[in-house]
Amino acid sequence: MASSFGIKDEGLIKTQGFIDGNWVNAAGGGIIDVHNPATNEKLGTVPEMGAPETQDAIEAAGKAFKSWSRTTPKHRHDILMKFYALMQEHHEDLSRIITLENGKTLTEAKAENTYSASFVEWFAEEAIRTYGEHIPSPFPNVRNVVIKQPVGVCAILTPWNFPSAMITRKLAPALAAGCTVVMKPPPETPFSALALVELARRAGVPDGVINVVTTQKNVAEVGKEMCESKIVKKVTFTGSTAVAKLLYSMSASTLKKISFEAGGNAPFIVFGDADIDAAVEGAIACKFRATGQTCICANRIYVQSSVYAEFASRLAEKVSAFKVGNGLKEDTTHGPLIHERAVEKVEKHIANAVSQGAQVLVGGKKIEGNFFAPTVLSDVPATVDLAYEETFGPLAALIKFETEEEVVKLANDSVYGLAGYFFSRDVGRVWRVAEALEVGMVGTNTGLISQAVIPFGGVKESGLGREGGHGIEEYMITKVIAFGGL
Does 461 qualify as catalytic in the annotation? Predict the structure, then answer.
């Protein structure tokens, strides 16, 4: 089976779950078929696990927490740095696995592995900086000391659009803090997660510290077990708002600590005083990265009327030059969507916009299989479905606006608040709009904001908690110790 991946280290391809240091099959013998979305070729299988395996994984993590949580931050730092080095060493193999199971181009997959490894490096360094503090007491002979401790066993649920980076963005801070984990990777892209677990094992992560349960049909019962288990103290999830709300409600039964990165519908604003060339490049980087399948990609592109025609023309020209195809081919700029349902959603949003008067400048049609032509729509009304729903595909919808006040109101007219972008060379406007946008992250004069070092997360129904930069705090508790009788 490993030969279908064409990688150098076939030991990175794992077709089993991972519980208490052992690679295991599903108790019932069920399997999940995993396919390459570009070719529909069957890459391999992973186990169809359920509640029993999840319970075993949680118990293993609970047992391992007793010893792992007592290791020194320096010890955890050293293991994570070995893990980071192994990710660098196996860069080509890990990138190829991403492309094969996700479909993104090999260039983008290599960028993802670099991004993914950066979380491991960052949190290795954060492990030794989990500082406490001394708080002066108003009472004599009392000393107040604040310490940080790992929260406990963490349940990690990740999406398919970044098969590697969404794992390390959660796993690395958990391990750095001294937590143990039970992970449920997506059934579409499990091999990247399992390869990372194999490298973590090689780096010296002890048995039971990382556990992986794979499932597709039993996702509801696995999620329920993770959220309602009294052993699990923290749940972290990236995915849709609907699922986040369900996990949130189940986690309430034990008042778990949570961090959710849910849906997005990012506004991208081009003001009349913007550098149009930079705005076009920013829109391409933001909107069409991973064929539009990112949670922070532009979903609504607002362009001021004075530069609307120029921006639309330049963007359409750039997009028309894209080469859609298999991500392993060198000339491919954009790969397939993950599955047929994703294609259908893009088609639905285009049809809805066109029915309300939008014009197709480029693309607008399915090519074949899971491939969809990168699309630019002009004359899009602000009331179309995509203005309120996340497309998650290669569709750039251009909406005209007149004033700053108008566009800020339009941008904030959403239940989501993950990311927002705008281009302007007016420094006063830059500050006003950045502060006015109701989002957790703002890109000003840039379409790329993702970095391991910054706090990543949203407001409103885009979730709560932060990953990246300050993310280790999400995996720790704050404890005060008041020393009396001194």
Answer: no
